[in-house]
Design goal:
- The protein is of the alpha/beta class.
- The protein contains 10 helices and 8 strands.
- It has an 8-stranded mixed β-sheet, sandwiched between helices.
- Helix 1 (about 15-25) crosses helix 8 and helix 4 (about 105-125) packs parallel to helix 6 (about 160-180).
- The longest helix is centred in the middle third of the chain and has 22 residues, at about 160-180.
- The protein is globular.
- About 45% of the residues are buried.
């Protein structure tokens, strides 16, 4: 595959930095997409450049809580007339309390699902046969549900962070599978990477039971490098040129249960999401 541009969202996180390292090492020019590029982006960029002479890295701001910010990011990329080889929707949050975005979406839903959905849809015109989309998923999709209150509240009833997180990861997996079927003839592949439980600040609940959960789950917690391995495998492996619509964990394809593989809401969720973000979906002119 020709090594055109790669985009990594959440590039300032532990996994995002490791993914960027790997793509740069493989010869890709990379855009590191940060929510707050002024915070520590330059330090991260300079560290990677010091380890990879000749690396081409650019920093861009993107706020997945704002659909206008997502559109502006895509517009800047498209207007430079670049081709996108790799899109890694790596950014994610595990919100500890209820909040809504400027577009009326529950915050976790906006960052983990709607924002990546819109970004991917807007960038499809600058992808070509061989381009790959990798969405960072989670094993919590297994407990996910898509309820009527999904977009505004994350779930029916009171705010519960883990179920809402699982709902967003189920939505992202259904998007992965639906999009894969829609871009198959274009030669673009779309897959999900389940990193497992990774030792990042996201897993801290900021509750009294944090030390206890740390003890219980420590044997199962991966380093950021271990967590990033599956996304890197999906992005770079020559064995996966034709693989699409799958969910990978530990660099192996997972057998999805029937209720996920043939989820009755997959197409409905696509249609509902399209309606929700319609004002931002108009094609970006190069």
């Amino acid at each position: 595959m020709e090594k055109n541009w790669a985009i990594v969202t959440g590039a300032d996180g532990g996994m995002g930095q490791i993914i960027t390292h790997a793509l740069v090492q493989a010869g890709y020019p990379v855009i590191m997409a940060f929510k707050d590029p002024e915070k520590n982006a330059r330090k991260v960029k300079e560290k990677i450049e010091s380890e990879h002479k000749g690396a081409i890295i650019e920093i861009e701001g993107i706020n997945l809580l704002s659909m206008q910010s997502v559109r502006d990011f895509a517009q800047r990329f498209i207007q430079k007339k670049r081709i996108l080889s790799l899109l890694l929707n790596n950014a994610g949050v595990l919100s500890t309390e209820f909040g809504t975005s400027e577009n009326g979406f529950e915050r976790t839903v906006s960052v983990n699902y709607v924002g990546p959905y819109l970004l991917t849809r807007l960038l499809l015109p600058v992808m070509q046969a061989g381009s790959r989309i990798i969405n960072t998923g989670s094993c919590t999709y297994a407990i996910g549900k898509i309820e009527n209150e999904f977009f505004e509240k994350g779930k029916r009833g009171s705010f519960l962070r883990i179920p809402i997180y699982g709902n967003t990861k189920l939505a992202l997996l259904l998007f992965t599978r639906e999009l894969a079927s829609r871009v198959k003839l274009q030669g673009i592949t779309v897959n999900a990477a389940d990193p497992g439980i990774v030792n990042t600040p996201m897993i801290t609940m900021k509750k009294w039971f944090d030390p206890l959960t740390d003890i219980l789950f420590r044997p199962f917690i991966k380093t950021a490098r271990q967590g990033a391995a599956t996304a890197i495998h999906l992005a770079l492996s020559n064995d996966l040129n034709l693989v699409s619509g799958c969910c990978y964990a530990n660099c192996k394809c997972k057998n999805l249960p029937e209720r996920i593989a043939r989820h009755p809401q997959q197409k409905k969720l696509w249609e509902e999401t399209e309606k929700r973000i319609k004002p931002f979906l108009e094609p970006v002119l190069p």
